[in-house]
Design brief:
- By secondary structure, the chain is of the alpha/beta class.
- The protein folds into three domains: 85 residues, no CATH class; 45 residues, no CATH class; 204 residues, 3-Layer(aba) Sandwich (Rossmann fold), CATH 3.40.50.
- Helices cover 20% and strands 25% of the residues.
- It has a six-stranded mixed β-sheet with strand order 14-11-10-15-16-17, sandwiched between helices. The chain has a five-stranded mixed β-sheet with strand order 2-1-3-4-5, with no helix packed on it. A two-stranded antiparallel sheet has the order 6-7.
- β8 and β9 form a beta hairpin.
- α1 crosses α6 and α3 runs parallel beside α4.
- The longest helix is centred in the C-terminal third of the chain and has 18 residues.
- The protein starts with 23 loop residues before the first strand and ends with a helix.
């Protein structure tokens, strides 16, 4: 199943009149997918005439705008996804953050909208808050969100993905952009890769090595075949421990840039996922005021360590993540699939068992970042 999501946002500015005798007018013009624009206008006046606010947006190619202002006006023109206007200007004395409004039940202007600071979760007592509760202007802060990444970096991630990118590069670049976003600031992030190679050695002679064909050289076995660990305990310790962004961004980016898909070798998905969930659960227990979730990023559903038959990988993975969801503390599992090697319905079963709404399946590199953003916004236990 191919899923595509397009993310286009338009900024809408609304003006609120004050009691100083000036009026306020807001006009919005939006161009669609190359057709004629639709126009709407509204006005709210005090006891006199005067200023206006005009907003014009061209979206998806074809919208255009012409803006004019009077003495107390703000003007904005935005072009999104090809061809629209791209200039902006502002000269308003009645649309700055925190200025009082006259709307019934609202007394403060935040982001161009009149809000009630006594109850608005995003503007509680002041603009730009994020509260789980807002009681008479007193904000109850949202829990800290910690995301632990379980990253498949097996050899298959080197496969081409889109016209000019491979799967691993798409994951790395998407995560790097995600870490840098202002909306990610304060969120904790850590990561763990799989597979991990078994330690081989020390040795004094060839017979000390695990398999025929291995050679003991300078106290270590030079192995004849690639051997990865299939023990969940080998995947409990993180490659980068969970810590808040942006402080942890440098360590995360350095690790991602130094990592390349490993192969040939196994894809020990179940033991790696089990170990990562064990770490996430322990982190949640040590940080009871945090919301801790696991994000599984993989291009396939497989396990070369598996001895229970390929047909049982999906139900056994479902059972694994559902057990951690039901545990104390509970850990949810989000799923980001890379490529269409696994049916979306299979990823969805894992996501549902992990307590999340649905998986995300990125079929092109540009889809990775929007899906990461959607998962972040869903995982926040806050509006």
């Amino acid at each position: 199943m191919i899923r595509r999501m397009a993310w286009v946002s338009a900024l809408v500015l609304a003006g609120c009149g004050s009691n100083d005798g000036s009026g306020s007018t807001a006009t919005s013009t939006s161009g669609g997918d190359g057709g004629a624009p639709a126009t709407s206008s509204s006005s709210q006046g005090g006891s006199g005439g005067g200023g206006g606010s005009t907003s014009s947006t061209g979206a998806m190619g074809g919208g255009s705008s012409t803006d004019s202002t009077s003495s107390t006006s703000s003007t904005s023109s935005t072009g999104a996804t090809g061809g629209g206007g791209s200039s902006s200007s502002s000269s308003s004395s009645s649309s700055s953050t925190g200025v009082a409004c006259t709307d019934p039940g609202a007394s403060m202007l935040c982001g161009g909208t009149c809000v009630d600071p006594k109850s608005d979760l995003r503007n509680c007592g002041q603009c730009d808050t994020r509260c789980s509760q807002c009681n008479d202007g007193v904000c109850t802060a949202c829990p800290v969100l910690d995301v632990f990444l379980s990253l498949d970096d097996s050899g298959f991630l080197a496969a081409w993905f889109g016209a000019n990118d491979d799967r691993w590069s798409a994951i790395r670049d998407g995560l790097t952009s995600f870490f840098a976003e202002p909306a990610s600031a304060g969120m904790g992030v850590g990561l763990s890769y799989y597979p991990r190679f078994l330690p081989v050695g020390p040795c004094t002679q060839n017979s000390d090595c695990p398999e025929v064909g291995d050679i003991c050289f300078e106290g270590k076995c030079e192995v004849s075949t690639v051997r990865d660990s299939c023990a969940p305990s080998d995947y409990v310790s993180p490659d980068i421990e969970i810590a808040a962004l942006p402080g942890n961004t440098s360590a995360l980016e350095t690790s991602l840039n130094a990592t390349e898909p490993q192969g040939p070798g196994k894809t020990p998905q179940l033991p790696a996922l089990d170990g990562a969930l064990t770490h996430a659960k322990a982190w949640a227990a040590a940080n009871p005021t945090h919301t801790v979730v696991l994000l599984m990023i993989a291009d396939t559903l497989s396990d070369d360590c598996y001895s229970n038959g390929y047909d049982n990988i999906l139900p056994d993975t479902v059972q694994l993540v559902s057990g951690y969801l039901a545990g104390t503390p509970s850990v949810k599992t989000y799923v980001l699939g890379i490529s269409d090697q696994v049916p979306a319905a299979a990823w969805d079963q894992i996501a549902a068992a992990g307590g999340t709404t649905a998986s995300r399946v990125a079929l092109v590199p540009s889809a990775v970042l929007p899906y990461l953003e959607a998962i972040r916004d869903e995982a926040y236990a806050c509006p």
